Amino acid sequence: MTAPHFKSISIVGVGLIGGSFGLAIKKRFRHSRVIGFDKPSVLRRALQRKAIDAAASTLAEAAASDMVLLAMPINEIVRQLPWLAPHVSPDTIVTDVGSVKSEIVATAARIFPHGNFIGGHPMAGVELTGIDAAHPLLFENAVYVLTPVSTTHRDKLQRLADFLHALGARVMVLDAKVHDRVASAVSHLPQLTAVALMNVVGKKHEEAAKHLNLAAGGFRDLTRIASSKFDIWKDILQSNAVEIDAALKMFIEELESYRKSIKSQPDQLESEFTSSRALRIRIPKTMKGFLYPLSDIFVFVKDKPGQLAKITSLLGESELNIKDIEVVKVREGTGGTFRLSFANDAEKDFAKRILEKSGFEVAS
Prior knowledge:
Elements: E1 8-12, H1 16-28, E2 33-37, H2 40-48, E3 54-55, H3 59-62, E4 67-70, H4 74-84, E5 93-96, H5 102-111, E6 117-122, E7 143-148, H6 154-166, E8 170-173, H7 176-202, H8 208-214, H9 218-222, H10 230-239, H11 241-264, H12 270-281, E9 295-301, H13 307-317, E10 324-331, E11 335-342, H14 345-357, E12 361-363
Parallel strand pairs: 1-2, 1-4, 2-3, 4-5, 5-6, 7-8
Antiparallel strand pairs: 6-7, 9-11, 9-12, 10-11
Helix pairs in contact: 4-5, 7-11
């Protein structure tokens, strides 16, 4: 073992994130016992997928582990913390995966007097939800923010950081308020922007169909997260309302300045394009951040039946999960092009090799 492992780990909420944790732990730390706490139907599926070794029947039973991971919606985490605290040993590390930290950390600071709570946010979400979407490599190369409380013991923080690093994550320690301010700008604002942009096009009524038919390529990439479910975002928007409001205000002011420039002096926007291009180059390309990136390949196919079925069968046999498929171009008599999206560059490169070996022309 290259990192201090935990003999027993309880996961409260065995959905996408919790289930992926269980699968990752069992893959990396085979001797750790993983206990799940959730609805009976979810626990049955988690046991079938081997994401957990056993199911806890009560929260108190789950609290008896060396580490307790709360993988639930933000408001549910805040509600469960007071119920959990009396049952937790001072030596147990308690952490969570909520994507807004201030309220969770403030609540935990009041009710965990032993310095054993550490807030957490794995930036590795995808549009899918539930235990069936869980994957053992979800945290591979993902930024994982830890937000300790003022009383958190340094040795506990280091132990959890080492453990997460062993699961493939890149750990960053931030103050909870700083985290929420950053998240409002690089995660929550883009989500609302994508929703607004999609609805602006959709509200063109009689022209909507024409707009959508032309809205491929860059527009599709820009609005990918507009398909996210509101159930996931309701707690986030409510919990981080103050920071999101500030981010929206800045964004609206920026758009208003562009609007004025377009009307009067459009050349003034050149500096905005130049600075945005320079800033974008600085975004790390090898890390999963707040917005989960996809890695694409383009597959050129002949105009004959069964081509897509053959592609998906080949990749499915190799246990590759296609995150997204788009028909980029189709020309009768000559064939077409599919864009296939994967979770990371490693899966993309593997898919490219498989398809090329079977005679497909592939570009990336």
